[in-house]
Amino acid sequence: MSLNSDNILLVTAGYDRTIRFWQANTAAVYRTIMHEDSPTNCLAIHPQKTLLAAGSYQHIKMYDLMSNNPNPVMKLDQLQKNIVTLGFSDDRQFMFSGGEDRFVRIWDMRAAKTKAHRQTDVDGAINCVTLHPNQTELLIGDQDGTITRWDMASDKHEKQEKHDKQEKQEKKETYVIDANNPSAIRSISINRDASMMAAVTSNASINDYFDIIEISISQFFFS
After folding, report:
1. All domains of the chain, ordered by start, with CATH?
2. pLDDT for residue 111
3. C-alpha closest to that of 86 among 136, 114, 127, 38
4. What DSSP character marks residue 135?
5. What is the pLDDT at residue 24?
6. What whole-number distance in Å separates Cα of residue 135 and Cα of residue 150?
7. Which pLDDT score, from 0 to 100, does residue 219 have?
8. What is the DSSP string of 56-105?
């Protein structure tokens, strides 16, 4: 489900392979799009409400919200496994995606390219990715119970010599919720002043028990 609150735009999708657009005040469906390749795992609405991104198995499709065209205007494929989370930066310059292949990818929205602009990987299958209010860091929650903080700005200037050529060195830090009892990170939210975040965890070994944990963002500050 994706909800844009400025001019309320509610969109849902699921395993029936149908994307539905709803009138929030009447709960009436006014538009549908068939997403026939595979069930839809996640949705994201562009900040300008001009595009809808839909993530599913091995691809991301972009739909035009300004017309009734049922076909995607762009398809990002050559991906592995399920795409499970999507989002846009506030300045509309990039989209980010995360998937079961353990990769977070950055897509440049200013260029009509079907290849990710940048990417990084973590140790476990990704369940959620949240953009920090500073718009330069991503918090990544994975199946192994680890939250990774990726500073996207740092690798613009930090480099290391490796195999006789320059390679970018990404700046990442990790936080394990409970090393003795790993629980999958299902969702991450950050408050407006970026002082605290909340992580929803679950543990399949104890009947899919869900817990909400508050964590001080200061624990993630880079030195």
Report:
1. 1-121 (2.130.10.10), 131-223 (no CATH)
2. 79
3. 127
4. S
5. 82
6. 11
7. 55
8. EBTEEEEEETTS---S-SEEE-S--SBEEEEEE-TTSSEEEEEETTSEEE
Q: Average pLDDT for consecutive 10-residue bins of the chain (223 residues)? A: 64 93 89 90 94 95 93 90 96 94 92 82 95 93 91 55 41 72 86 86 56 59 40
223 to 151, 152, 173: CA distances (angstroms):
12, 15, 11
CA 107-108-109 angle, to 5 degrees, is 105
Is 126:98 a contact under the CB 8 Å cutoff? yes
Amino acid at 130: T
C-alpha atoms less than 13 angstroms from C-alpha of 205 in its C-beta half-sphere: 4
Q: What is the pTM of this model?
A: 0.81
